[in-house]
Amino acid sequence: QVQFVEFGGGLVQPGGSLRLSCAASGFSFSESTISWYRQAPGKERVLVAQISSGGIHTVYRDSVKGRFTISRDNAKNTVYLQMNNLKPEDTAVYYCKRPGYDHWGQGTQVTVSS
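Given the sequence above, the corresponding structure tokens read:
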């Protein structure tokens, strides 16, 4: 059974940092591209970052370029999202998933507020 468990969210002040983790199971993780998405209140879920199976190729949403870094540890079946210089508009529930498959975890809440 495919499963994603996201954690690491929390409340942080503007300019602060958080590191999200996504633990995956039930599929061939090391052969899969993995994406981070986020959904802000009242808005659609959008792609934030994506990383190829080997970790070489990454894609970022324009609004997070230079602030967020996606990485992965295939030995631990885990993908990370390092978020620096956080802004209030980064407030959302963050999810990870495989592109093209409709399996979602419960997400982790990130709130950026003073």
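DSSP finds no helices and ten strands in the chain. Try to locate this feature in the token string yourself.
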